[in-house]
């Protein structure tokens, strides 16, 4: 199968032709066969030397340019420093990006970097993104994990890997900032037109397609982050280069699932100020979207005042819209009223139970076993209010998964995988892609708590 290079052809200034480095001893460790088939690949061919060449970026490939606000600081020249857009697969009438990470230096690599990734970070992204997909969160998917046979220096010597993922696209908020750096509005408009036709074609018909485009990006990102909140997913590094235009979750670096419910939860070792804490994610999404609005101002209107007041209006309303979306999503999942949801959330904050287990305790209570719910929420009056709202047992069961990738179990599985034993990793992968199946090992919260648990960018 031939991949197309639609993005590179439409926006040549936003990419650099680049190739994946030769790998000493590449082995395809994991191939997501159902996904490969959906993309129109013959899995057998992908496993062949020619398939491996494609996945490693040895055919025509491009590094994509973007800028980014990293922890609030603008970095104009970033881009794929260790990754390549392999091209797009056409599925029905949409293009899907294939993108490989850990393929070696590119024109965007930071000085002194090696363009590579640890096998462990690649395995982590593969498992967590597939878990997110199974949990119903818009996300990039994991297609393949390849060990390269290299050892790389990351504190100590670690095996390296290449991960291939599939995304609706790799357009980021930061891509729009980069487009402005070149010839300004022309390139920006070309990028916006491309993004509209690829992700929000309905916007073309509206009076001002760029305003409508912005509103639609806001809506889809909001829906995604509201789902993160319900599951306790903490992205960890919500820089504008990690915020997609499609609304998909992207870049599973220091991400982690919260266990004990606490708005201040942070796991990333580099997030000292708690900028990307669990409870701050909605606010940061708003901040990132405001940066997107700023870059789109010239397209909103030729009258700068009018453009600013439009952006201002959307952003002023954002916190309220987010709260509305979250409350609607969460109340629908609980099959109850927004009022009962609000009191559940207050009870969660007071009791700080394991979020996944608390949700499942409610499912059990709705199904007539309220023992765990009574234990977790002893003396909280929301529980009787909830049960008397008569939620449907099937609906609530379908809303709240049993299995999420729990942090210490994932770390332990990755350590063993790094040492060559993939048993625990395979077992966990199988569990997280079927998150509603009862599982003997993966439903319980960490017995020691996660107070000292930390994640690293793991590059
Ligand atoms: P990430 O943390 O993966 O979102 O990456 C942030 C930026 O740092 C991107 O521009 C990456 O391409 C770049 N980067 C991260 N790790 C490396 C590496 N080992 N070599 C080159 N560039 C890197
Ligand atoms: Mg990134």
TrEMBL record:
It comes from the Bacteria. ATP binds at residues 79, 81-82, 101, 114-115, 165, 172, 251. Its cofactor is Mg(2+); Mn(2+). Its EC number is 2.7.7.-, 2.7.7.108. The active site is at 241 (proton acceptor). GO terms for molecular function: AMPylase activity; ATP binding; magnesium ion binding; manganese ion binding. Mg(2+) binds at residues 242, 251. It catalyses: L-histidyl-[protein] + UTP = N(tele)-(5'-uridylyl)-L-histidyl-[protein] + diphosphate; L-threonyl-[protein] + ATP = 3-O-(5'-adenylyl)-L-threonyl-[protein] + diphosphate; L-tyrosyl-[protein] + UTP = O-(5'-uridylyl)-L-tyrosyl-[protein] + diphosphate; L-seryl-[protein] + ATP = 3-O-(5'-adenylyl)-L-seryl-[protein] + diphosphate. It is an enzyme of class 2 (transferase). The keyword Manganese applies. Keywords: ATP-binding, Magnesium, Manganese, Metal-binding, Nucleotide-binding, Nucleotidyltransferase, Transferase. Coiled coil: none annotated. HAMAP family: SelO. Nucleotidyltransferase involved in the post-translational modification of proteins. It can catalyze the addition of adenosine monophosphate (AMP) or uridine monophosphate (UMP) to a protein, resulting in modifications known as AMPylation and UMPylation. Belongs to the SELO family. This is Protein nucleotidyltransferase YdiU. It comes from Corynebacterium flavescens. The gene is ydiU.
């Amino acid at each position: 199968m031939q991949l197309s290079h639609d993005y590179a052809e439409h926006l040549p200034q936003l990419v650099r032709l680049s190739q994946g480095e030769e790998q000493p001893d590449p082995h395809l460790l994991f191939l997501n066969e159902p996904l490969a088939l959906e993309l129109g690949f013959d899995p057998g061919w992908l496993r062949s030397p020619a398939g491996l060449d494609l996945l490693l970026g040895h055919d025509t490939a491009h590094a994509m340019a973007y800028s980014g606000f990293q922890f609030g600081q603008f970095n104009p020249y970033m881009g794929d420093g260790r990754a390549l857009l392999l091209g797009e697969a056409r599925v029905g009438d949409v293009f899907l990006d294939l993108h490989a990470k850990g393929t070696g230096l590119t024109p965007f690599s930071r000085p002194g970097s090696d363009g590579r990734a640890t096998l462990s970070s690649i395995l982590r992204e593969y498992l967590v993104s597939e878990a997110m997909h199974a949990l119903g969160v818009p996300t990039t998917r994991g297609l393949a994990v390849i060990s390269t046979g290299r050892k790389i220096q990351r504190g100590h010597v670690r095996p390296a890997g290449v991960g291939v993922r599939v995304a609706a696209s790799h357009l980021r908020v930061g891509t729009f900032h980069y487009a402005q750096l070149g010839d300004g509005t022309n390139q920006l408009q070309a990028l916006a037109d491309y993004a509209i036709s690829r992700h929000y074609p309905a916007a073309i018909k509206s009076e001002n397609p760029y305003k409508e485009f912005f509103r639609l990006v806001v809506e889809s990102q909001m829906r995604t982050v509201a789902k993160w909140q319900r599951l306790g997913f903490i992205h960890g590094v919500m820089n504008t280069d990690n915020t997609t235009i499609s609304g998909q979750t992207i870049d599973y670096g220091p991400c982690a699932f919260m266990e004990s419910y606490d708005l201040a939860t942070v796991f990333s070792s580099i997030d000292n100020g708690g900028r990307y804490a669990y409870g701050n994610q909605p606010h940061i999404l708003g901040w990132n979207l405001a940066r997107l609005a700023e870059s789109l101002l010239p397209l909103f209107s030729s009258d700068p005042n009018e453009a600013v007041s439009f952006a201002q209006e959307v952003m002023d309303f954002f916190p309220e819209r987010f709260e509305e979306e979250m409350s609607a999503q969460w109340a629908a999942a609980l099959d109850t009223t927004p009022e009962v949801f609000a009191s559940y959330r207050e009870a969660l904050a007071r009791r700080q139970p394991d979020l996944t287990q608390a949700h499942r305790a409610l499912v059990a209570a709705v199904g007539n076993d309220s023992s765990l719910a009574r234990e977790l929420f002893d003396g909280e009056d929301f529980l009787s209010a909830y049960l008397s709202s008569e939620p449907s047992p099937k609906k609530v069961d379908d809303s709240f998964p049993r299995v999420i990738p729990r942090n210490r179990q994932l770390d332990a599985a990755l350590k063993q995988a790094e040492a060559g034993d993939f048993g625990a990793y395979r077992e966990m992968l199988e569990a997280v892609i079927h998150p509603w199946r009862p599982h003997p090992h993966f439903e319980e919260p960490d017995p020691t708590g996660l107070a000292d648990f930390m994640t690293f960018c793991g590059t």
